[in-house]
Write a structure and sequence with these properties.
Blueprint lengths: L2 H25 L5 E5 L3 E8 L10 H28 L4 H27 L26 E6 L3 E4 L11 E4 L3 E2 L1 H15 L1 H9 L7 H7 L1
Antiparallel strand pairs: 1-2, 2-3, 3-6, 4-5
Helix pairs in contact: 1-3, 2-3, 3-4
């Protein structure tokens, strides 16, 4: 796998992610929802100022810090991907790394620029792209657009369930976006297949080890 393949995967994910976010932002009002498949998949428009799946981090200062961390992580990520390619790591690892990198870049674009290029989604008003009065925020203060919602199960838990028995329960509750999904897919795949991805680099062949060669000689 070559570096241009990494760039292609990143660009592909970014195009899908940003196209969907742009459409959502300019065609839906906040909390509007479209049911795609009843009982398990909906398009539900929300925004968040924090991390993936709506998690938050440290108010206004935390928002800037998180955005800067994302920026540094993306830059370092591209450099690190070159290193992995040079050292001939597995194609699977490089694909997963590309997904994580693309996801981080996708949410970074929202955080850096969406406050500048969109006005706010308030009530039943749909946001406009490059509004005459300016955007809803400043540089680094954009909110991440989320829309993918999979409430696979909704209902009251049986009374025998410990601690939560009788409570109303939704699975899966978080609303997320394509960038979040790319990051999660990449991270989970690396955790599941780490031995396959890192095996030959963690345990070099004995024939390649200097001690082994001396012993054989």
């Amino acid at each position: 796998m070559k570096y241009r393949h990494v760039i292609f995967i990143v660009i592909l994910i970014l195009v899908i992610d940003q196209t969907l976010k742009f459409w959502i932002k300019t065609h839906m009002f906040m909390q509007q929802e479209f049911v795609i498949f009843p009982n398990w998949f909906r398009i539900h428009f929300i925004e968040n100022e924090g991390m993936a799946y709506g998690l938050k981090f440290g108010g206004d200062f935390g928002k800037i810090l998180l955005t800067m961390f994302r920026l540094v992580a993306v830059v370092v990520g591209f450099v690190y991907m070159k290193k992995l390619i040079k050292e001939k790591y597995s194609t699977g690892l490089l694909i997963c790394g590309s997904l994580i990198l693309a996801g981080a870049a996708g949410n970074l674009i929202d955080s850096m620029f969406y406050g500048l290029i969109f006005n706010d989604s308030i009530g039943y008003d749909v946001a406009k792209f490059l509004p005459a009065g300016g955007g809803y925020g400043s540089f680094l203060h954009g909110r991440v657009v989320d829309m993918l919602y999979f409430p696979i199960y909704e209902g009251y838990l049986p009374s025998w369930v410990p601690f939560k028995g009788g409570d109303y329960f939704v699975f899966f509750r978080p609303v997320f976006n394509v960038a979040d999904a790319a990051i999660s897919t990449g991270v989970i795949s690396i955790l599941l297949f780490q031995k396959r991805f890192f095996g030959k680099h963690m345990h070099p062949k004995a024939a390649d080890h200097p001690v082994a060669k001396d012993h054989v000689a």
